[in-house]
């Protein structure tokens, strides 16, 4: 028997798929096509899925290797005995790229191929899957291009940089029959699965509210102004879909998170793990009412995103609510939690600290209830689904990337407009608000353009 969450997931996949239209990848030659994708009226060739035998290696390319990409490399390489292998590293910064390649050779006693341009990776028939750890503004387009090239995808959180991009990712995965995993590791945590089951079974009673907490140490980044592009960095490629601007050390390599062109603030950074768990735990989709406020109160630096953010998402039909808090500096913990979630029911509450630890407290006296600390292997889950070519095996399928990222985007839009917004979850549009709806997408820079629609699936397996 399907549980309620499975039914909701199937429903969400069906709604708002958009009109049917083919899309194109500028400059990307597809297998079996004589003309590069991006030429007029060219239909992408659908590459048949590879069937992996017991002795076949799943060959992975990691895109973006400065930060989270390092974990992606080690995450896949620890499965060498399972015939999984990182064969290519890709980064727009060649200095970082070559450093990582040297580290790879030292650690694993083998060389790895390097590419600065991700389009060359997609052209490489020796690559079966890509793992995307580039800045946020690249996640969706890289995912779509990879799907078109016949690659399966593990994409770091947030799956999308704008709300619309999440829907396009779902369409691309479906259209090109690809396995797409969202990089929220808690989805594979055995403790988190058990915690969700407690919420479904009524251990804390009727669950009506979830809090997402992101209390991270975020210092003053100053104002370093514009400067020449560092040697080895392809600044045009790094900017990709974003509008071109002068280089600044304030962007590269981490603080891009705090600029709207590239990042989404902490609710769209660390917070995606917590937005995902809020929605999973409450068993809800997108909200009907969003109210967000906050600002910069600590530092007189050049960050654009808020330091402090308080967002409320209401679900009037379900009688549920999500509260989300971002704090940047000195702060108290909430029941010991700095980064995590708290769920409230009429019989008790559940505290989730990080990604693999939950505790339940029952009754007015807060008597300790069930608790567990246990992790999981999200990379292995992805590889298992790739080998079987079965997206039903995924713990974090692309639909969850759209939801967890999308709710963060809705909160940011409310903050930036300074008002409460009404939203239609089925149409995926704000109600009677052209200004807000315009912010569901962005202006893209050719040739790094995400199309308005992705064509429907050609066939079902």
UniProtKB/TrEMBL annotation:
<dbReference type="InterPro" id="IPR050463">
    <property type="entry name" value="Gfo/Idh/MocA_oxidrdct_glycsds"/>
</dbReference>
<dbReference type="InterPro" id="IPR006311">
    <property type="entry name" value="TAT_signal"/>
</dbReference>
<protein>
    <submittedName>
        <fullName>Gfo/Idh/MocA family oxidoreductase</fullName>
    </submittedName>
</protein>
<dbReference type="InterPro" id="IPR043906">
    <property type="entry name" value="Gfo/Idh/MocA_OxRdtase_bact_C"/>
</dbReference>
<feature type="domain" description="Gfo/Idh/MocA-like oxidoreductase bacterial type C-terminal">
    <location>
        <begin position="379"/>
        <end position="449"/>
    </location>
</feature>
<dbReference type="Pfam" id="PF19051">
    <property type="entry name" value="GFO_IDH_MocA_C2"/>
</dbReference>
<dbReference type="Pfam" id="PF01408">
    <property type="entry name" value="GFO_IDH_MocA"/>
</dbReference>
<dbReference type="InterPro" id="IPR000683">
    <property type="entry name" value="Gfo/Idh/MocA-like_OxRdtase_N"/>
</dbReference>
<dbReference type="InterPro" id="IPR019546">
    <property type="entry name" value="TAT_signal_bac_arc"/>
</dbReference>
<dbReference type="InterPro" id="IPR036291">
    <property type="entry name" value="NAD(P)-bd_dom_sf"/>
</dbReference>
<feature type="domain" description="Gfo/Idh/MocA-like oxidoreductase N-terminal">
    <location>
        <begin position="58"/>
        <end position="183"/>
    </location>
</feature>
<feature type="domain" description="Gfo/Idh/MocA-like oxidoreductase bacterial type C-terminal">
    <location>
        <begin position="223"/>
        <end position="277"/>
    </location>
</feature>
